[in-house]
Amino acid sequence: MLPIKPDSSPRSEKKTPQGRLPAFRAALTEWFRRHGRDLPWRRTRDPYAILVSEMMLQQTQVATVIDYYRRWLERFPDVATLAAAPEADVLHAWQGLGYYSRARNLHAAARRIVAEGGGFPHEHDGILALPGVGRYTAGAVATFAFDAPTPPVDGNIVRVLSRLLDFREPVDAAAGLDHLWETARRWQPERAAGQYNEAMMELGALICTPRAPACLVCPVRAYCAAETPERLPVKKPRAATVALEEACGWIVRDGVEVLLEKQTGKRWHGLWRLPLLRGTPGKELLSLVYPFTNHRVTLRVFPAAYEEAALPGQSEWFPLAGHAAIPMSAPHRRALERLVATAANAEAAARVSLKNEPVSESS
Q1: Distance (Å, rounded) from C-alpha 202 to C-alpha 209?
Q2: Domain boundaries, the chain
Q3: Which CATH architecture has domain 242-353?
Q4: What is the CA radius of gyration of the chain?
Q5: Reduced to 3 states, what is the DSSP secondary structure of residue 262?
Q6: Element (H or E) spanning 316, and its range?
Q7: How many CB atoms lie within 10 A of CB 168?
Q8: Of 63, 100, 242, 314, which is the most exposed, with the fewest CB atoms less than 10 Å away?
Q9: CATH code of the domain made up of 17-150+172-205
Q10: Which residues are catalytic?
Q11: Mutual orientation of helices 87-94 and 101-115 as an angle, nearest 10°?
Q12: Chunked in runs of 10, what are the mean pLDDT values of the chain (363 residues)?
């Protein structure tokens, strides 16, 4: 038997899936059945579990989400359990995933569902009405839980559609994104829409990747119009990165408690942080850098007294021994953990020094 040669015809001569949608869908879903990953949220039709996974997967990689997803469902197995939980417990369970507004929205959605009778909405518009749920998440829950023909156009699907169509307009502009949403809607099958949409997303995750698309093994290569797929999708120029600094205090009482303040900003609302200082007193204890939208923030921590903290909002003393249970934003958690470890090491070194100190003999 002769080996199958890769299709070498110019991509510009190929047609898009439009007009050949049944064959396109068949090739795609057959590939997905053979090669799709076995992910825990793909084993359920529970809309609550799927909503949890979709909230977590926004801005977070699959490998990171898997363990968080399992732990979350162990702690909050259903809508009623989550609705009854205090916000501090919800934020603590989310800790490490970032973008904490997702956790607060998930909590608010559970409370809305319980307040309205406890039944998870089955229709797209009902899901869309839940707090924090946009058209992507509503489409994802509706199609994966109820097999509705509602496209969940995420980054993977945007990339796949842009390349299939050789679409050259910015996909982060309203007109370009709306065009892709409308295309995704028109391409929906009447049956098995959930599997088709999973397959589109999986194609973007495994084959039609951002930097090095594996075009030679793509199951729908014959339907792709892109000549230079690695240059798609087109996006608007990025905003320049802005450097910021924040000076925070390491304020400890009696060596056993640390002062923290509650954040009020939109991103980390309700989480605790090291308190901001009015100035930068003393010698810097540590610094670390973290990104925030188009900003690059340098967090610097200084030893300080209570009076030096700005404390515009709520503040509270926490036991250092229990710092792991405090819901904190990731940069401040890293800083606190390093400071606690440094203090513990210094204390241990002091004990060793005292133990080894020679005892003077009385004359």
Answers
A1: 10
A2: 17-150+172-205, 242-353
A3: Alpha-Beta Complex (3.90)
A4: 26
A5: strand
A6: strand 315-319
A7: 13
A8: 63
A9: 1.10.340.30
A10: 54
A11: 140
A12: 39 69 98 98 98 95 97 98 96 90 96 96 97 97 98 97 97 97 97 98 98 96 96 93 93 93 83 87 90 91 87 86 90 94 67 49 44
